[in-house]
Every structure is written in structure tokens, then in C-alpha cells.
Design a protein that fits this description.
There is one protein chain. The chain has about 375 residues and is of the alpha+beta class. It folds into 2 domains: about 100 residues, no CATH class; about 260 residues. A 6-stranded mixed β-sheet has the order 5-9-10-8-7-6, with helices on one face. The chain has a 4-stranded antiparallel β-sheet with strand order 1-4-3-2, covered by helices on one side. A 3-stranded antiparallel β-sheet has the order 11-12-13. Helix 1 packs parallel to helix 3, helix 5 packs across helix 8 and helix 9 packs antiparallel against helix 10.
Length: about 375
């Protein structure tokens, strides 16, 4: 559907778009300031300026071009500026397209801006820790200053917190892939709010919190059969599996799905990223998952795939190879931002983390990821 983006004949659909409104609010702008008006005399005009313009604070040092859905997304930096002052000048993203007035494309583009450039909130605990979970990292449940509950993982010693870094990386990249995953925040838990918690922890380092979700069911070996076996749910699981192959997540498997099912929205929710990058291994190159490391080798996958025609599963794979390419493009622009968002108190070496993240986008790695994913998929659908 073609819709006007401003002028006398506009009905304001885009101005009222929720995602664009959230982007504008986050940067102290109005929706009208985010959207550049068109020439009302032209029924489907070329923009006189950028269609969407979004100011980003932060010294990006690359020029990145993404082509998707006929759109060209251009990120321009101010190359050659003094490094001490370059962060003070805004960086601009502009969009031009023959089909820029297609409302679906505008919403897609707005979603990508939101995912890529919305900063992780930094919030404080509002009251004493409500619960400690007796799982591997012994996370705690905390009511925070934004009046939301968060499941928080924290520094447990003075050693570098590479697992926390993986949680941040995994959540950020999952959002870039448009997977269903909880929103995250950096949570400063006040010293007095740790009362009654015996696990060692750092009082000064922010924890990483995943927002608590209501209306979800943990997927376990005893509950997986309750997940509706629909083609849509199967496609969600296959995309999560492909994400795991790419990001080398060794902790989502038959015995530990690290998934929830959102009963209200009928969707799978991906959680827990502390064991991505081959269980937070930063000193060695990435290595591929084995057949049994993946959620494709599980009763959940067999439950969802049972009764589906192989042609339907192959059709999902055909869609995923396109999605894979697009997701890599979207995720690649997050590298510098992820590095900058990591708290210094975590004591992680930024150069080491960046080098590891760059490996995720190596052509050989991504080609091997796809081949490995397809081999495991075929093996588990025979």
C-alpha cells in the first residue's frame, strides 16, 4: 500500500507509527522531525532530502551500505576528524529508495533503526533482591527503577567477566536478527539490596538484566510437547538454531533448550547467551557446533517437524538463507556499539572482544555455518 508521508493529503499513518514514535522519543525529537516531508504535488515523489534522518552519537569509523527491499541504507562518518572531537558530531543515516513510500518498508526500516541504535538502558535496583534462582549462574530477580522485574546475572569475582560480555553480545545480536528475546538493561544493584544473598558478587560492577516476562512457559524435556506444532513455530525454531550455529552457542541443546514459549503471542522466546562464542572462549578461533550441540537434535524439533512435509521444511530453509544474509548485514553495524556499551568494571579487553566479533562475519565462517546448519537439518529430518 502506498501512503503519503506528509503534506496536504497525508492521513498521518507514518506520523502515528509506534516504532517511529519510539525512535523519536528516545532522541528527544518528534515524529515529524524524524520523517522528512515529501513534495505534495507529486503523487509518488523522489525525496528532496533523506526520507529518514537519524542522528547517532558515537565515532563510527566505517562507511556501511546495506541493500534490502530496494532500500539503500547509508551510514556516513566524519573520516579524518580528530579522534578527541569526532564523538561530538552527529552521524547521519539517510534512506533513499524508488519505493520509499511503501509503508511496510518504512516500518521495517524504522524497526532496524530502533534495534541498531537504541542504547541499552542503565537502571538501578528499587528494592531488595526478591529471589535467587538455583541454576548455573545463580541469577537474581530484582525490581528496578523502571518498575520492571529483571533476572540479573552479575560479576562473581574480580576476574574478567567474559560470560557477562557474551550475555550482552548474544542479546544484542538476537535483537538484530529479530528473534523474540527479552529486553535487557545494565542494572546497578545497590549494596543494601544484596541482603540475604550469600553468593559472592561485585558491588561496583553493573549486572546484566533480562526483563521478566509474564505468560511464558519454560520449555523442558517434560513440557516441550505443549508447544503447538505449527509451521510458524517450526520456522521460529529453525531460525533460532541457525542463529546458534552462527554465534557458536553451545548451551542450547536437547537437555537445555534455553527457550520459553509465549502463550499470549504464540511464539518461542530465546534466552541465555552466556555460552555463545564456544562457551565464552576468546583466546581461540571460533569452531563449529557438532550435531548434538544444536536444538535441531532434540525432541522439541522432532515434535514441531513431525507431520510437516519435507517440502515445507525445505521452503523454510530457502527463506532462511535470504534472512541469514540480511541479518548478517544488520548485525555487523553493532560491533562498535556493543564494545562501547560494555561496562569498564567488567574488566574485559575491548580489542579481544572486537576481534572475536569480527570472526562472526568472516566469509569462510558464515559459509561453513550455513553448510553445517543444512547438514544437521537434513540429518534430523530423515
Amino acid at each position: 500500500m502506498l501512503v503519503p508521508l506528509g503534506g496536504r493529503d497525508s492521513k498521518g499513518e507514518i506520523l502515528r507509527d509506534k516504532t517511529i514514535g519510539e525512535i523519536a522519543k528516545a532522541h528527544g525529537k518528534t515524529a515529524a522531525q524524524v520523517i522528512i516531508r515529501r513534495d505534495a504535488a507529486d503523487p509518488c515523489p523522489r525525496p528532496r532530502g533523506p526520507l529518514l534522518q537519524h542522528a547517532l552519537r558515537g565515532p563510527d569509523e566505517v562507511v556501511h551500505a546495506v541493500e534490502s527491499d530496494g532500500l539503500r541504507l547509508r551510514m556516513d562518518n566524519f573520516a579524518g576528524e580528530d579522534a578527541k572531537t569526532s564523538h561530538l558530531r552527529p552521524h547521519f543515516i539517510s534512506l533513499t529508495s524508488e519505493t520509499y513510500c511503501n509503508s511496510r518498508i518504512i516500518r521495517t526500516f524504522a524497526h532496524r533503526l530502533k534495534i541498531m541504535f537504541m542504547a541499552i538502558p542503565v537502571i538501578d535496583s528499587a528494592k531488595r533482591i526478591e529471589q535467587q534462582f538455583r541454576t548455573g549462574e545463580e541469577p537474581v530477580l530484582v525490581m528496578c527503577s523502571d518498575v520492571n522485574l529483571y533476572v540479573c546475572k552479575y560479576m562473581r569475582s574480580s576476574a574478567a567477566a567474559y560470560k557477562l560480555a557474551c550475555e550482552l553480545i548474544g542479546a544484542r545480536m538476537a535483537k538484530a536478527w529479530q528473534l523474540n528475546t527479552p529486553d535487557i538493561a545494565l542494572v546497578r544493584i545497590k549494596p543494601s539490596h544484596w541482603a540475604g544473598i550469600n553468593q559472592s558478587h561485585s558491588l561496583s560492577a553493573p549486572s546484566i538484566g533480562s526483563r521478566w516476562m509474564d505468560g511464558v512457559v519454560d520449555i523442558t524435556p517434560s513440557t516441550y510437547a505443549k508447544v503447538p506444532a505449527t509451521i510458524d513455530t517450526l520456522e521460529q525454531l529453525m531460525q533460532i538454531a541457525l542463529f546458534d550455529f552462527w554465534i557458536a552457542n553451545e548451551d542450547r541443546n536437547a537437555n537445555n533448550a534455553n527457550l520459553m514459549y509465549d502463550v499470549v503471542r504464540s511464539r518461542l522466546v530465546s534466552i541465555d547467551y552466556g555460552c555463545i562464542l564456544n562457551t565464552a572462549t576468546f583466546e581461540y578461533p571460533l569452531s563449529q557446533l557438532t550435531t548434538t550441540d544444536t536444538i535441531l537434535w532434540s525432541d522439541l524439533f522432532r515434535h514441531l517437524a513431525q507431520g510437516q512435509e519435507k517440502t515445507s521444511i525445505h521452503a523454510i530453509a530457502d527463506r532462511l538463507i535470504v534472512v541469514f544474509s540480511e541479518n548478517l548485514q544488520q548485525a555487523s553495524v553493532l560491533i562498535n556499539q556493543i564494545i562501547e556499551e560494555m561496562p569498564s568494571e567488567w574488566n574485559v579487553a575491548q580489542s579481544v572482544v572486537k576481534e572475536k566479533l569480527l570472526q562472526l562475519f568472516d566469509d569462510r565462517w558464515t559459509a561453513d555455518v550455513w553448510d553445517n546448519f543444512m547438514e544437521c537439518l537434513i540429518d534430523n529430518t530423515r
